């Protein structure tokens, strides 16, 4: 049995406390009037020594827009971090379901780690859902299509309003989260029951529900990516967006599985996990990073080549206003994993996998960031107190939930039919 | 120089693997093993040095990438500037998205083909090459372990029979 070390527990509480504090400061310092917003931007410009004169010909609507962007900033920061950590748990759950459905022989030793990480789906998913409810309740303006004034003047959104409307949006979100959480809890229950049982019936049932879940997941994950991420730019659409978001959450999930496994091993748990298991996880990190880059590029190149204004605007705004995170994440998510994990031997070196994992996690946070921010805060983005605090808060919560869940059951499944194969797994 | 070698035949890859471990444990040098199909883990059991083929493959891939970049730059930008996708920038970097598939393909092409050619050269394989198998059965259902004899013929025979060899021959090489 794993015991949650006090040091880690305290660290997670500190992360959460600092995070809450920073998030609070972020909301408090957001401007409440147009004058505040003007002053903030003006002082920002002075700070950079720019010779910008705040132009008089800017009309009131421009400042109104600026105010909304600055008011959105702490919300968007919270939403990006909430989504990012929720998707780690969801990506892990997908990986777990694939192992179950494939009846993989190498991975059963890691099932409890995966179950522990996917435990975060419950609080993480509920937090994302609450943010979406608050958006529909007009407490923030993350989703421009929820604003009736905007819709009244926008024929394109009007045409989509049969799908993009508050109630249907929330119903979909509730169905998705309920389905994912239901599978997670049920599969976990069967997994624990298998330990105490004297036949393989729990294992077989788990196999069947996992295969069924994967069908449900692939459809709902795709719709989720349109709803929760793509719809912040309601005019823009991409048909492979679901896959692209999936690749991101999948690689972050696998990365966190590898990191938690290495952490637990360093504390003396998971004795039967050998470096071939780490090697396999690192191979997945390597392969799925390339898969993510492939999808990213497939999406980018078609839009870039065709140069249709309604599509290309998505990348034009990102290259104009977000050059560093937009291009930087390609380096972090593709070039680094490609070069660092190419060598077979490096995939077995724990600290190497951890370092590459950190790069991948930072890169994929930027991925979500660049997906959400341009539509919500425009060129007013920065990585400041609200962004960092949101990440700290959710990482604290994530660590607390995941490691508390790991203490609930023995880290090694006892009666999984493939456990012997997994123990003797070597490459 | 002609030397005497012992040929031990096995008819099962698991038996062969155990035999290799025993022979290695008895500190004999295994000259070669002929198999009808690749046996997983045999190279590690025999104590062979890891292959350096992957390193050559990486270098060939880099060569392919450089050639693709130089080629596309010459063809599409310098020699006959092309207006790509209605964006007449005539700059390599701004047109690079269009070249990435070619850069990728040539990287793979060079890495794959030159690696295979390197493998053939290193293994001394070429068209119409005479097979080196000492016994035709190694292309069908038998495994053959070849060990050089240094006056310890009887010891080796006993050891090999003990490991489950189905047939043992001694030949001049």
Automatic annotation (TrEMBL), chain A:
What's the source species for this entry?
Arenibacter certesii
What parts of the sequence cross the membrane? 12-30, 76-98, 119-143, 163-183, 211-229, 241-264, 284-306, 326-342, 349-368, 388-406
The protein in question is named: Quinol:cytochrome C oxidoreductase
What are the entry keywords?
A: Membrane, Transmembrane, Transmembrane helix
Metal-binding in keyword set: no
UniProtKB/TrEMBL annotation, chain B:
Keyword Metal-binding (UniProt): no
Recite the UniProt keywords alphabetically.
Answer: Membrane, Transmembrane, Transmembrane helix
Q: Which residues cross the membrane?
A: 53-77, 97-121
- Does the record bear Transmembrane helix in its keywords? yes
Pfam families, per the entry: ActD
Q: Return the PANTHER family for the record.
A: LIPOPROTEIN-RELATED, QUINOL:CYTOCHROME C OXIDOREDUCTASE MEMBRANE PROTEIN
- Protein name per the record: Membrane protein
Annotated organism of origin: Arenibacter certesii
Question: Lineage in the entry?
Answer: Bacteria, Pseudomonadati, Bacteroidota, Flavobacteriia, Flavobacteriales
């Amino acid at each position: 049995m794993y015991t949650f070390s006090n040091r880690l527990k305290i660290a997670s509480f500190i992360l959460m406390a600092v995070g809450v504090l920073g998030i609070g400061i972020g909301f408090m310092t957001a401007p409440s009037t147009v004058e505040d917003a003007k002053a903030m931007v003006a002082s920002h410009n002075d700070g950079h020594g720019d010779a910008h004169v705040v132009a008089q010909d800017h009309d009131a609507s421009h400042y109104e827009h600026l105010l909304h962007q600055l008011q959105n900033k702490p919300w968007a920061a919270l939403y990006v971090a909430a989504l990012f950590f929720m998707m780690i748990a969801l990506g892990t759950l997908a990986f777990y379901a694939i192992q179950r459905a494939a009846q993989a022989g190498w991975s059963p030793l890691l099932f409890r780690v995966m179950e522990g990480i996917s435990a975060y789906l419950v609080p993480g998913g509920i937090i994302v859902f609450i943010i979406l409810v608050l958006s529909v309740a007009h407490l923030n303006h993350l989703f421009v299509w929820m604003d009736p004034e905007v819709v009244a003047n926008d024929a394109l959104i009007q045409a989509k309003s049969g799908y993009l409307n508050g109630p249907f949006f929330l119903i979909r979100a509730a169905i998705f989260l309920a389905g994912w959480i239901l599978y997670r809890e049920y599969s976990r229950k069967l997994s624990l029951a298998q330990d105490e049982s004297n036949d393989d019936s729990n294992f077989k049932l788990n196999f069947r529900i996992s295969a069924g879940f994967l069908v449900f997941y692939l459809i709902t994950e795709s719709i989720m990516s349109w709803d929760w991420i793509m719809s912040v730019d309601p005019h823009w659409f991409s048909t492979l967006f679901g896959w692209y978001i999936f690749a991101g959450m999948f690689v972050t999930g696998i990365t966190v599985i590898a990191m938690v496994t290495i952490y637990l091993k360093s504390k003396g748990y998971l004795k039967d996990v050998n470096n071939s298991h780490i090697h396999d996880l690192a191979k997945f990190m390597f392969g799925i990073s390339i898969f993510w880059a492939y999808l990213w590029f497939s999406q980018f190149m078609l839009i870039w080549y065709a140069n249709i204004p309604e599509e290309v605007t998505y990348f034009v705004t990102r290259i104009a206003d977000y050059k560093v995170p937009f291009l930087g994440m390609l380096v972090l998510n593709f070039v680094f994993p490609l070069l660092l994990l190419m060598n077979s031997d490096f995939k077995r070196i724990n600290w190497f996998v951890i370092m590459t994992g950190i790069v991948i996690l930072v890169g994929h946070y930027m991925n979500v960031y660049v997906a959400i921010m341009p539509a919500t805060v425009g060129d007013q983005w920065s990585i400041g107190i609200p962004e960092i605090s949101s990440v700290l808060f959710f990482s604290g919560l994530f660590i607390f939930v995941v490691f508390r869940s790991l203490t609930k059951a023995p880290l090694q499944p006892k009666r999984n039919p493939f456990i012997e194969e997994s123990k003797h797994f070597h490459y | 120089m002609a030397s005497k070698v012992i040929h031990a035949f096995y008819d099962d890859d698991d038996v062969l693997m155990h035999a290799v471990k025993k022979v290695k444990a008895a500190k004999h040098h295994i000259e070669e093993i002929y198999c009808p199909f690749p046996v997983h883990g045999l190279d590690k059991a025999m104590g062979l040095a890891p292959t350096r083929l992957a390193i050559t493959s990486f270098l060939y891939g880099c060569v392919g990438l450089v050639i693709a970049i130089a080629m596309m730059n010459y063809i599409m930008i310098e020699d006959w500037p092309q207006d790509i996708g209605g964006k007449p920038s005539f700059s390599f970097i701004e047109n690079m998205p269009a070249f990435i598939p070619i850069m990728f393909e040539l990287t793979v092409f060079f890495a794959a083909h030159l690696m295979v050619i390197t493998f053939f050269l290193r293994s001394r394989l070429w068209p119409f090459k005479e097979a080196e198998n000492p016994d035709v059965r190694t292309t069908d259902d038998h495994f053959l372990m070849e060990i050089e004899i240094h006056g310890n013929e009887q010891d080796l025979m006993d050891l090999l029979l003990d490991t489950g060899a189905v047939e043992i021959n001694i030949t001049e090489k």
